[in-house]
Write a structure and sequence with these properties.
The protein is built from 18 helices and eight strands. The chain has 477 residues and is of the alpha/beta class. It has three domains: 90 residues, no CATH class; 126 residues, no CATH class; 192 residues, Rossmann fold (3-Layer(aba) Sandwich).
Length: 477
């Protein structure tokens, strides 16, 4: 049985203060936690068995989290604030040290590091075959203690997960694990597929336990708050588009799709408001005869309802590579939920790329095709907003009209070239509504070659560095 770390009576607030620090850390990681949820978390401490660490983990998660995507960040913080504790040692066993280190190892410690690593590899193979998560976590603690130590420094002892994984090489145990799990069953069938999946899950759990133990030891020396800032990955909706990696794109795609639906609804909301047009005087007077000439009910001529139209101008230059992938994702999502979308990409020239975003088309394939087939580069391949706007206005002047919503996506960095403000101002004047989403922080607008502050004088310029800010933009639109 595992338990959270013991709390010192000297710790401010005791258990309540510790929980308050944990809730604050969860909130700072980007997970919204209200007062009522914090109160519920305190109630959880009176309901669950505090000696059952996993019960506490799931209980607090049930009241603090709203989405499954928040769970990885939560688990990292939980392991920092509620680290694995040890059962009280039985008679004859030695106590662990003050910060919860394991007691005497059950392994016979050999004389050399190579012999120790080989002995621990054999023990790891046995534990992986048994699949006991609790024992595997305890083994991870011992492995970090014996194999993960780096050279001591003035700031204290350092531990590294890569040293443990390099010494134990858990990936080389796959063959032995498969043989043990199959136990003579026929290879190549369903049993082997299940066994391979089990092996992957157990190896991943061991690596996670190693990383959690390294974080725990680092937090004991440098403080939980400091480690939390570097250990917790930003949530998908808080990842900067300019820094998004391939591993973030799938989650971003899931976050962008519903936002695109909401954006389409917002941009076309006016068509559903005031469906009745100008007053029909004759019909109103005739109807008033039934009420003694008093026009109790007015009649209006039906307003002609138009299909919503959207023009998207996307900067796809190298300086905004991460953002351009997002903008094309957004364009694809809008194409699926918004009638009459026309998409245009530009670097130093502009080309229509609507044809690459048919409903159901793969975004990665569309991006590749734009790079190969779209005519977006005329000179040197560096952003030229002024020329791009002029090319768009010359070739597709009719694309923007009184029924059109214009959406520009880019950082507004012109490489010190003419920004084309008069052309953009004319497009904004002709459009029904216009917005510009900029992936750079507002404090950088106007710095260096950025003309974002000048563009902001003629179009609604909105900071949009991540999906959370996109959601805010859609909500306040």
């Amino acid at each position: 049985m595992s338990a959270p770390a013991r709390f010192s009576s000297a710790e401010p607030g005791g258990l309540a203060g510790h929980l308050d620090g944990f809730v604050r850390a969860v909130r700072e990681a980007g997970i919204p936690v209200g007062i009522s949820q914090a109160v519920d978390a305190a109630e959880i401490l009176t309901v669950v068995d505090l000696l059952e660490r996993e019960q506490l983990r799931h209980g607090l998660a049930a009241v603090l989290l709203q989405r499954a995507a928040q769970r990885p960040a939560y688990d990292v913080l939980f392991d920092l604030w509620w680290p694995l504790g040890d059962r009280s040692p039985a008679a004859g066993e030695s106590d662990g040290d003050a910060d919860g280190e394991p007691g005497q190892s059950t392994l016979d410690v050999p004389g050399t590091d190579a012999e120790l690593a080989e002995l621990m590899r054999a023990e790891l193979l046995r534990l992986l075959q048994e699949g006991d998560d609790e024992q595997l976590r305890r083994f991870a603690r011992e492995a970090v203690d014996r194999l993960g130590r780096g050279q001591p420094s003035p700031s204290g002892q350092s531990f590294f997960s890569y040293r443990v994984l390099r010494a134990l090489s858990p990936d080389t145990l796959v063959a032995g694990l498969l043989a043990g799990l199959l136990a003579g069953q026929e290879r190549g069938g369903l049993a082997e597929q299940i066994a391979r999946q089990t092996v992957r899950e157990r190896l991943a759990a061991f690596r996670t336990a190693i990383e959690a133990e390294v974080r725990r030891r680092t937090a004991a020396e440098k403080g939980r708050e400091k480690v939390a800032k570097s250990a917790v990955r930003p949530l998908a909706d808080q990842v900067d588009f300019l820094r998004a990696q391939a591993s973030d794109l799938a989650e971003l795609r899931r976050a962008v799709a519903p936002l695109a639906r909401r954006l389409a609804v917002r941009l076309s909301a006016r068509r559903r408001l005031g469906r009745e047009g100008r007053l029909d005087f004759r019909k109103t007077v005739r109807a008033s005869l039934a009420t003694g000439g008093v026009p109790v009910v007015t009649h209006h001529r039906p307003r002609k309802v138009h299909k919503p139209e959207l023009v998207v101008l996307c900067d796809v230059s190298g300086s905004v590579a991460g953002f351009s992938h997002f903008t094309l994702m957004l364009t694809q999502a809008l194409r699926e939920h918004f009638t009459g979308v026309r998409a245009f990409a530009f670097v130093d020239s502009t080309d229509e790329v609507t044809r690459f975003f048919r409903p159901g088309a793969d975004v990665a394939d569309a991006v590749a095709r734009i790079g190969r087939e779209a005519d977006v580069v005329t000179f040197d391949g560096h952003s030229d907003y002024g020329n791009a706007f002029e090319v768009f206005a010359d070739r597709w002047a009719s694309a923007v009209g009184p029924k059109t919503s214009l959406l520009v996506l880019g950082d507004g960095r012109t490489n010190y070239r003419p920004p084309g403000l008069p052309v953009l101002a004319d497009l904004v004047r002709r459009a029904r509504s216009s917005h510009w989403l900029n992936p750079e922080p507002r404090r950088l607008w106007g710095s260096g070659d950025s003309a974002a502050d000048r563009y902001g004088e003629v179009i609604d310029m909105v900071e949009c560095r991540n999906a959370a800010q996109l959601a805010e933009f859609v909500t306040t639109l």
